[in-house]
Structure formats: C-alpha cells, structure tokens
Amino acid sequence: MRTVTITPRPGLLATLATSGLQMLTALALLTTFGSPAGAEEAAGGGSALRVGLSTRYPPVAFTKDGELAGLEVDLARAAGEHIGKPIHFEVLEFDELIPALRSKKIDVIMSGMSVTEQRKEKVAFTEPYLRVGQMALVRADDFSRFVAPDGLNQSGVRVGFVGGTTSARYVAASLPRVTRVPVAGADEGVEALREGAIDALIHDAPTIWRVSLDPNERELLALYEPLTEEYLAWGVRKDDPNLKGALDAFINQWKGDGRMDAVVNRWIPVRVEIKAK
After folding, report:
1. Are strands 124-125 and 200-204 parallel, antiparallel or unpaired?
2. What is the pLDDT of residues 133-177, one digit of tens each?
3. I need a labelling partner for 218 at 20 to 30 A (CA). Which of 136, 235, 237, 263 fits?
C-alpha cells in the first residue's frame, strides 16, 4: 500500500527570515562595493543578460497585473545581481525558447525547463535547481475513476498537455490508449478541465500543487502520485561556458546557504512525499 503525505517544507518561516536578511545584506554589499570580483569578466561583460521565458507556467513564470512574476523571475533577478548584469526578459512561447537561444536572440532560458537527453543535444544545462515531476489533475467527481493504477490510460479518456514539453512526451509514451488534447498553457489546460473539454491535465508538479492546494478549490483534485522524476535547470548555448559557469556558481551558492530553498518555498510552499508501507 502507498500513502501520499503533503507537508509544508521544513523550517519555512525560519529559512525565509534568515535568507531574507542574507539577500538584503548581499544587495547592500553590491550597492556599496559594486559587482562581485570577476563577475563581468566571467559572464562576458556588463551588457544586459537576455532571459527567455514563457509566461504560461504559473507559479514558475507568469504575468500578474501586467507584470512578470514567479519563481524564475525572482531567480533571474537574483542571478543578475550575482553576476553583475542587468536583466532583460524576452517573453516567448515555450517551443520558441531553444531556437531563440541557438540563434542568439536570448542568452539563457529560465522557464521551468526540464533537463532531457534530447534537449542536451541542443543546449548546455546549468546545475539543476529544483526536482519536480509530471502529475495529473482531474475533476473531483472523477477522482475515484482515475485514482487506480493505470486509471488514466483508458480508451476515450481525453488528456490535456502542453505541446513540446515533458508532459507531451509522457502522454505519448505512457498513455497510448487516451485521446491526446494539446493545450496552449497551464491556465488554458485548467480551464479546459473545468469546462469538461478534457478529463485530465498532465503538467509539472508546481502547477498541479498551485491549483489543487488552493483552499478555495472545490472542483479539481490532484492525483498526487508523481508520474515522472525530472530536474529543472537553465539552458545556455554550448559555446558560452563562461555564462554557464557564472550561473552554476550562483545556483551552488544559493543552494548551499539556503536562499534557493527560501525562494522556491515562496512560490511552491509544499512538497509531496510518497511512502511505501
């Protein structure tokens, strides 16, 4: 038997308080003493870092009241401070990000992109900053229908996914019996599920958690068994090792001193643990 435990990340308030002080101190030092030594040289000078992202992935990257928001937006701004570069965001569709990077329209992809072998052929990934996985969201009335093992993989079940993502790959490889229904983004998929246009939505765990754990949500429930294990990282060009090195140093420093957890916890304040009995 398997049970699913949903718990707040340990030490969230203490971590946020400590890390918030660390962030303010770091920003004060940058203001007083300038950029960290060697930051411009390591990252290729003081010109703006062009960050490509898709805003169809709340809480990782989205728009709120006309402004960019989300985990990736906060991390991009912090990374810019760390390497001594202003940030310029380029909003693109998800499937436009890798072509834009390879054609040098952007310098880095920061858009909740999972590391895959196929993508590694085209871009160089930084150190991962978050472990996630695909999960399923269904209507509450259909929960008992789909909660059983292989419950989703049935003829006539309409499963939504975002094209060009690991959710699309999972549906194609693991749910061969279903009717596949591509959607433009996470919010569009959630709306299609509410309206009955699809029976389930497959998307990254942060999206599923955001919807299903909303205390006001009554219509939709998550199947909390993770369907895959994936790692999120940033993508840079293979001919730009200096930028990759600078971003790796930022990620490793922030993971080491707790600031990465603090930012992640702000946007994704839960985790799902599956325990065998």
Report:
1. unpaired
2. 999 999 999 999 998 878 999 999 999 999 999 999 999 999 999
3. 263
